[in-house]
Design goal:
The chain is α/β, with parallel strands linked by helices. The protein contains 5 helices and 10 strands, in the order ββββββαβαβαβαβα.
Length: about 230
């Protein structure tokens, strides 16, 4: 897997991370969350056009995946789902421990490098995008810009959505119409839920499979470079 130049592979408090520090006087943390069977190297292919002001961090998920790589939920058969038990679509219940661990990592790592991460930006792909959706719903005060790539909304979030935690947030969503792993209907359904939670959506849909098209990558770059992720009328 090709990774971005000037990145560092580090071990931090039982996590494996690939980071790209910033030389900016006031860097902003950008969290890169890989999908199922991915790792800390998977997301850097998207970052070539991103601002050098970002301090980027890509953590390796804590659980092994089959046949290789890593996952944000425990392996098959080690958990019981209250939300239907569908291992194809991980629930809030199955992902919540990783969400909470990731938030603790952000706080501990940012403190160790003296980085202000009271608010941060993040994007994720596939299962990582489901993680991003949950972080936004659970910790809306912590997130500024949010990118959901080829993702879905985990079941079990209705109570969170009813509280409208995403009012004032502009969230970027991208999906391919030919995606066979995460059908585009799941992305469209997740948009409805994000809007019910109060978010404004910037949506890029393209004729692509389970990947980010060139057009949608440019749209993501534009979204991340726009002032404060402002909501547009």
């Amino acid at each position: 897997m090709q990774t971005a130049i000037n990145t560092e592979l580090i071990a931090f408090d039982n996590w494996t991370l690939r980071v790209r520090p910033s030389q900016s006087a006031n860097p902003r943390l950008l969290l890169l969350i890989h999908g199922w069977t991915g790792d800390e190297n998977s997301m850097w292919v998207f970052t070539r056009g991103f601002s050098p002001d970002y301090w980027m961090m890509a953590p390796r998920a804590p659980h092994p995946a089959e046949p290789s790589g890593f996952s944000w939920r425990p392996p098959r058969g080690t958990i019981r789902h209250a939300q239907g038990g569908d291992f194809g679509v991980p629930s809030l219940e199955s992902l919540l421990p990783s969400v909470e661990a990731l938030m603790l990592l952000i706080d501990q790592y940012s403190a160790s490098v003296k980085l202000d991460a009271r608010q941060f930006d993040l994007f994720g792909f596939s299962q990582g995008a489901a993680m991003v959706n949950l972080i936004g719903l659970l910790y809306p005060h912590r997130v500024r810009k949010v990118g959901v790539l080829a993702g879905f909304m985990p079941p079990g979030v209705n109570d969170l959505i009813s509280k409208k935690p995403l009012v004032g947030k502009n969230i970027f969503v991208a999906h391919g119409t030919q995606d066979q792993k995460v059908p585009v209907d799941l992305a469209r359904a997740s948009i409805d839920l994000l809007e019910q939670a109060g978010a404004h959506i910037t949506y890029c849909e393209d004729e692509a499979g389970h990947k980010l098209s060139a057009n949608c990558l440019r749209a993501l770059e534009d979204y991340l470079s726009s002032p404060e992720g402002a909501v547009k009328d």
